[in-house]
Amino acid sequence: MTDRAMQEPTLLLLTALADVPRHGYAIAREVESISGGRVKLRTGTLYGALERLLQQGLIEVHKEEIVDSRLRRTYTLTAPGRAALAVEAERIAATAREATRRLGITGKAATA
Amino acid sequence: MTDRAMQEPTLLLLTALADVPRHGYAIAREVESISGGRVKLRTGTLYGALERLLQQGLIEVHKEEIVDSRLRRTYTLTAPGRAALAVEAERIAATAREATRRLGITGKAATA
DNA sequence: CACCATATGTCACTCACCGGCATATGCTGA
DNA sequence: TCAGCATATGCCGGTGAGTGACATATGGTG
Questions:
Q1: Which positions on strand D lie below 7 Å from a protein C-beta?
Q2: For chain B, which end, N or C, has fewer CB atoms within 10 Å of the first or last residue's CB respectively?
Q3: Which residues of chain A does B84 touch, with a Cβ-Cβ cutoff of 8 Å?
Q4: Which residues of A touch B8 (CB under 8 A)?
Q5: C-alpha neighbours within 13 Å on the C-beta side of residue A70
Q6: This protein's superkingdom (chains A, B) (predicted)?
Q7: B62 CA to C19 C1' distance (Å)
Q8: Mean pLDDT, rounded, for A100-104
Q9: Confidence of residue B90 (pLDDT cuts 50, 70, 90)
């Protein structure tokens, strides 16, 4: 298991589930909304990631219902999922802070 | 597309160059330091990324000198590189903020 | 003298993400 | 009327950043 850092689509997917349970398509719309239209989850990415995250135990099926004679599955974060998202959020926030700080202290002209 | 979001190793690499120019190995050490020992840049990732970033114009060769009869190349951020890093830092900071915010408001009365 | 830090580089492989396709329903408008 | 779009789930081949192992070379330390 390569402990590789979470990528943006996955991070946004988990974020979309952080407040309320949602089904696949709703997650995709929410991700687009969160990212200001920047990131549009492809269905390949979406359902692939859901499958992967289920296996990793970061999300779980919240409810299964039949809507218009089709199955709709809603997903929700598990406790480990919430924890993982919190860790990941703090990690990237720290990286962002460090990058911003260094860009500021450029060594060159610096602060205005 | 090439529009794909930057991954952590690349982001840290650029961050390591944000204050002063460094050569490859120094970048690797700096990245390890910045990330608190969490991320160790493999040489495959390092030199592969340097090559890619050079081609993308985000970094450039700052100086080439012979040290111990071996070539040492130091790299520095270009203006587009600084801009890209700033954009990326703000992007992930925003994502982190949103994730943290949502984790806080845990599924109470939000949009269904 | 073995071993490690320093230092740069190649290459086969993996896997998350991409892009396109398939499928099915309900609504809206030319 | 039916073309087209939003809704909704899912598969599959391909791409490319990152991985891990290997290659090579020097200078210092036990």
A1: 7-13, 17-23, 26-27
A2: N
A3: none
A4: 5, 92, 95
A5: 4
A6: Bacteria
A7: 38
A8: 93
A9: very high
Structure tokens, A64: 């299964």
Domains present along chain B, CATH in parentheses: 8-99 (1.10.10.10)
* Nucleic strand D under 7 Å from the C-beta of B48: yes
Q: Is the CB of B3 under 7 A from strand D?
A: no
Give the CA-to-C1' distance from B68 to C1 in angstroms: 22
Contact residues, chain B, for A79 at CB < 8 Å: none
Chains A, B: CB contacts within 8 A come to 103
Query: B20 phi and psi, to 5 degrees?
Result: -135, 155
DSSP letters spanning chain A: ---PPPPHHHHHHHHHTSSS-EEHHHHHHHHHHHTTTS----HHHHHHHHHHHHHHTSEEEEEEEEETTEEEEEEEE-HHHHHHHHHHHHHHHHHHHHHHHHHHT-SSS---
Q: Are A82 and B103 spatial neighbours (Cβ–Cβ below 8 Å)?
A: yes
Question: Count of CB atoms within 10 A of residue A63's CB?
Answer: 11
pLDDT digits (tens, 9 = 90+) for B22-62: 999 999 999 999 999 999 999 999 999 999 999 999 999 99
